[in-house]
Design brief:
alpha+beta; Signal recognition particle alu RNA binding heterodimer, srp9/1; 3-stranded antiparallel sheet; 2 helices; elongated
């Protein structure tokens, strides 16, 4: 697992209320989270953690969103 994003988000967030979406692995192969900085700007920070084939991406999306 790549914990770079977790550390970066912890350093940048400061206040827990600035977390808009917690850091998590995404079905398309990235790990990321969303935050609001002290100036009101919204940031999505992510890093690529694995290559996912189109077929696997569709299967994961179907499981996540209840499709298929």
């Amino acid at each position: 697992m790549d914990f770079f994003m977790d550390i970066l988000l912890l350093l940048k967030m400061g206040k827990p209320k600035a977390r808009l979406r917690p850091v998590a692995d995404q079905f398309y192969g990235d790990r990321g989270g969303k935050l609001r900085d002290p100036f009101g700007h919204v940031w999505w920070l992510a890093t690529h953690i694995e290559d996912v084939s189109p077929e696997e991406m569709k299967a994961r999306a179907d499981r996540l969103f209840g499709g298929g």
